[in-house]
Specification:
four-stranded antiparallel sheet, minor pseudopilin epsh fold, alpha+beta, elongated
């Protein structure tokens, strides 16, 4: 403590008790926030997987029209799919690295050179629930 010229003492800083109380409050708030965040993760992963698959389907459709060839999107296993453009080697995409615990189920989708397709549904699921992506006969890709 410093002594001031007029006889009044000034107090600088915080007491140990004040610091401990603030730390306890921060610990409680952090614990509650962490639990809420952990509960949201499966839903975030499910939505991310849906966006990824939709993006790849739209890209496959655009490639079929642009290159004037058929493009096939085929399941590899319950978390991977392959996209084959014309007679090129298939390119495989796996959901597990970015979206662990997420699985998908569908039958092969074939986009014609005009961008049309047979109607198909892709089911994507994890601990948060189930979402579907539909491919219309026109080739339009939509999630629900």
């Amino acid at each position: 403590m410093h002594s001031m010229g007029n006889g009044i003492r000034s107090k600088c800083g915080y007491s140990l008790l004040e610091v401990v109380v603030v730390m306890a409050i921060l610990a409680i708030i952090s614990a509650i926030s962490y639990q809420n965040y952990m509960a949201w993760i499966p839903g975030i992963r499910l939505n991310g997987a849906v966006r990824q698959v939709m993006s790849d389907l739209i890209s496959a459709r655009m490639s079929s029209v642009k290159e004037n060839v058929s493009v096939a999107v085929s399941p590899v296993n319950n978390h991977s799919y392959a996209i084959t453009i014309g007679s090129q080697e298939p390119k495989t995409f796996d959901l597990q690295p970015n979206f662990p615990g997420t699985t998908l189920k569908f039958t092969t989708i074939l986009f014609s050179s005009r961008g049309t397709s047979s109607p198909r549904t892709i089911t994507i699921q994890n601990a948060a629930g189930i979402k579907t992506i539909t491919v219309a006969i026109t080739g339009r890709v939509k999630s629900s």
